[in-house]
Amino acid sequence: MVFPHRFTWFLLLSILLFTVTPASAAPTSGQSPVNITADSLAHDAAKGVYIAEGNVLVTDGAVTLVADHVTYHIQDGTAEAEGNVRLTSEEDVVTADTVTYAMESKEGTITNGTVFIKSRNLWIRGETLEKRGENRYTAERVTVTTCDGENPDWAITGRKFDITVEGYGTAHHVMLKTAGVPVVYTPFLLFPVKIKRQTGLLAPLVGYSSRKGLDIIQPLFVTLGDSMDATVYANHMTERGTRGGVEFRYMASALSKGIFSAEGLNDRKIDDGTSENSDYGYDGSPDRTNTDRYWFRGKADQELPGGFKAKLDLDWVSDQDYLREFKDGPGGFDATQDDMEEYMGRTIEDHTDTVRTNKLSVSKTTNAFTASLSGIWNDDVVARSQDTEDSTLQQLPSLTVSQSRSALGTSPFQMSMTGGATSFYRQDLTSSLYDGERTYILPKVYMPFKVGAFSVDPSAGVRGLWWDIDTEDSASAFSGTHSTAVPEFTTDISTEFYKIFNTDADWADKARHRLKPTLTYDWQERLDDTEYPTFDTVDELDGKNQITLKLDSILTSKKNGESLPVYRDLLTATISQTWDIQEDRETDPSQWRNGLTKEPFRPFYAELIFNPVMNLYFKFDGTWSWYESEMLTQNSALILGTEETKLFSISHRKKRDPLESIHESLGIPASSSYESTDSLVARLKMDIFDRITLDCDYERDLEESEDIKKSVGLTYTSSCWALFTRYEDSTDDTKIVFGVELTGLGGFDSSYDAN
C-alpha cells in the first residue's frame, strides 16, 4: 500500500492497521518505538519490511537515519539505506553512499563513507567500513585524520584498521601523509582513541646526552577506578641502564587523598673521583660510589574518626646526586614538585637540599583548641650514603597544643596559650650537640582598648621551659635537667585614615585611599645559651627590646559592573623601620648581631605592588642599610599577564651579605663564605604571527657574570597539529628539542645534546 503524501508512522500503528501479527513490528518491552518519515511509505507483509522513498527519516532513540531510500526489516530491526545517507548516533555522524545498520546491535556496513567522531574531531574515511558495535569500527583500507576538509594537512592511511573509541586503534602498512605527500611509513601502528581517563600508553620522550646516552622514557597511564590511577614509566638509558618507576594517586574525598611515587635504577656508572668517571658527578658534591639508586616520596591527607586528621610526608632518596640527575621528565623532580603542590597543596625540599623531611602527624582542630602529635625524621642523605656520623636533629615525637585568642568571661581581658613537649634525638652526639626532652608552655594575656581613633593592643606572657638533656659527656654543663621562665611583652598601637574620591574615569568610578600606621613595641628577656640548652625557635631566645614603625598604604579602585562592582588594588605599599634598643645599649661586641659593629637601626624595609591596569603588575621589595649606605636586598619584577599565565616577565633578585661591606670598611680580608647573590630572570611568550608563538627564557648570574640558562622556542599551531622547536643552553647541558603533535593522536618529541 503506497501513500502519495508525506506522513509519520509509528511502527506499532502501522502493524495494527496493515497486519494481523503485531509481534513482528511492535516494539517489545524495553524497546523504544521506531519512527519513519518519508514522502511515501509501503509495507510488504510477506517480506516483513517497510520501504520508504524520498526524504526518508528514521529515528530510534538517539539514532537518526536520513537517506533517499530505506528498507526497514521488522524482524531484526535492520535498515538498508541508499543515496545521500546520513546516520547520526548522539554526536557521531556517518555519511555514505549506502549503509546497512542494525538498530539493536549498533552494527552495520558503510560503503564509500565517512565516520566523524565529534568528541575527538576524528574523521575515518574508507570504501567499506564495518561498524561492529557502538564504539568499534573496522576497515580493509581507510584514511584517518583529525583535520577538517577534503584535503587534510595530515592523514594516516593503511590497511586492516581496527578502531575502538575510548580505546585504541591498530593498523597495518601505515603511511603518514602531510599535504598528501608520504613522509613516514611503519608496518604496524597502535594509537589512542580516548576521550575519558583510561589505561593506555602516553607519548614517549626521546633524547640524547653525554651523561645518559640515548634516553627513552615511555609512560603508561593506568586507571584503577573513578578515584584512583597510576602512571608507570620505564626509562632506558644506553649509558646508565633502565630506570623504572610508578606514581600512584587516589582521592577518597577532599580531605582524604594522596600521591606516592617510587623508582629505582641499577646504575652502570659511579662517581669515585677518578678522571674516567668525572662526567657522572657534580661540582661541590661528594663522591657517589653506589650503583643501587632510588627515590621514594609521597604525601597523604587522611580524615579520621572524631574530627581528627592525619598527614604524611615521605622523601627518601639514595644519594645526594639523584635528584639533580633526574630533574626533568616523567618521574623527575620538577614533575614531582608540581604534582605535590597542585594535588596536595604542599611541596618538597629543593633538589639541591641534602636533608629531606619525613613527617607523620595527627591533629584535631576545634573553634578553641588545636592539638597535634607528630614525628619528624630529617634524613641527612650525605651522612647516610657516605656512612659518616649523623648528628641531624630529629623530633620523635612532638606534641603541640594551642588555644586561640579568646575573651575571659565578661572581663576586658583575652587569653591565648601554646605549649608542647618534644623528644629530640640524634644518632650521633658530639661535645656541642646533644639531645633530650623539652616541655614548654606560653600563656599570654591581652587587654585591647581604644583611645580616640587609636587602637591599643598590649599583651604579656611568660614562657616556661623544662629540659632533660643527654650529652656525650655526662660532665657537660647541659647534662641533666634544667628549667627557666622567660617573660615577654608586646604592644601594638594603630589607627587608620581613608578617603574616597569620585574619579568618573574609564578605569574607575571611585577610588579609596587607606593609610594605616602601626607602632609596635617588643620586649623579651634573653635566654643565655651558655647556661641553658637550645634546640629550635622555641628556646633560641636572643632577647628583644625594640620599637617598629610600620605604614601601610592601599589605593583601591571601584568600577560598577553589570551586576556587581569590580574592585582592584591599584597600589599597595608598606614601609617599616625598627630601632633595636637592646643593641643600642649593648657594650659587648660579641652580643652585637654581626659581632663587629653596633647597628641599632635595623635595615629600612619597603614593599610595593603596582597594578595600574588589568594583567600588568610591578612588584618590589627591598632593605636598605643605614650603616653600609646600600641596598642589602632588592627583589623587583614586571609581569604582563596573570600570575598563572605570564606573557612577559622580568625579575631581578639581589642580596648583599652585610659582612661583605663591613669587612671592606674595616679592612678585613674578603671571605669566600659571603652569601651574596645577584640574578636576572626574563621570560617572554607571545604570538608573533598568526599561529606562531615565540617562547624565550633567560637567566643570568650577575654576581658571577655568567649565563645560567638561555632558551628560545617557536611553536606553529594548526587546527589539527602543532610543530615546535626549542634551543636551550644551561650550565649543565645544551639541547635542541624538536616536537610534532597530531591533535587527537598524541605526539612525539626529541632532544639532542648540541655539544
UniProtKB/TrEMBL annotation:
Residues 1-25 form the signal peptide. GO terms for cellular component: cell outer membrane; transporter complex. It comes from the Bacteria. Residues 291-665 form the LptD C-terminal domain. Gene3D superfamilies: Lipopolysaccharide (LPS) transport protein A like domain. GO terms for biological process: Gram-negative-bacterium-type cell outer membrane assembly; lipopolysaccharide transport. Residues 35-129 form the Organic solvent tolerance-like N-terminal domain. Keywords: Cell outer membrane, Membrane, Signal. This is LPS-assembly protein. It comes from Desulfoluna spongiiphila.
